[in-house]
Write the structure tokens for this entry.
Amino acid sequence: MAIDDLPLRSDPASSSSTGTPAAPPERPGGSSPVRWVVVAIIALAAGAGVTYWWMTRARPSGPVPPPTTAADSTRTSTRPQPQPMDLPTLDGSDALFRELVGVLSRHPQLARLMATDGLVRRAVVAVNQIAEGRTPSAQLTSLRPPTRLTITGGEEGAIDTRSYQRWDAAVDALASVNPAEAAQLYVNVKPLFDAAWAELGHPGGNFDTALTQATDVLLATPVPAGEPVLLRRPGYYEHVDPALRSLRPVQKQLLLVGPDSRARIERWLRAFASALDLPITG
């Protein structure tokens, strides 16, 4: 499986979950869908956190639900309890999200993301595709890096480390969302995510399952010994190292954000998963 930042080729099945046609392949030199790895996480964080201002303005009163199982009584969970809240319908949730995410974070990348439609559904599909090891490029089309991937050689070479700067703004946007606050807010709006998850063929399902699987896939991406060496192919790049070439598409693309940005993403994911008490393995 080749990686293709000229362009990074999206897998044909990536749009099958929603019936949305996959985006046509870009000409050589196009921008990489690796951005969707970061954007999908940002979308989820934004969707989870947009009610922060709402909560702080009018916190509902009432007792915290008691533990319901023996395990709950012997173990203190880090997961926040959901607070009663009148949520809009899934179809009508965009307007509220757009209004409140501006209070959660003023980062311009988040503002651009909020200009799209079907925010919860897009986030759910993106996370589902990451959980399956795919790249959700067809679901999130509003954000693109300003520059293209380059390598240090002609037909073969290490990634030019200056290419990693393409992801600075997107990763900064993710880091602008506090993971603990996002966790509290996610449990409050979780019915919307569960509803969108059910539409994908998981009736009665729990979107935590997809969150856990997607986090595990990303955290399982190996750390290369050095800068990955790429081969230039007609319209795409691929790894020289067979071990890296055999990774899942979303993992190969995560490598292209660079070690520093990747470390920031992984720290955020672990903090978010810990706050939600998700049983991740990474």
In short: Residues 62 and 84 are 9 Å apart (CA to CA). The longest strand covers residues 229-233. Residues 32-58+83-276 form one domain. Residues 179-199 form the longest helix (21 residues).
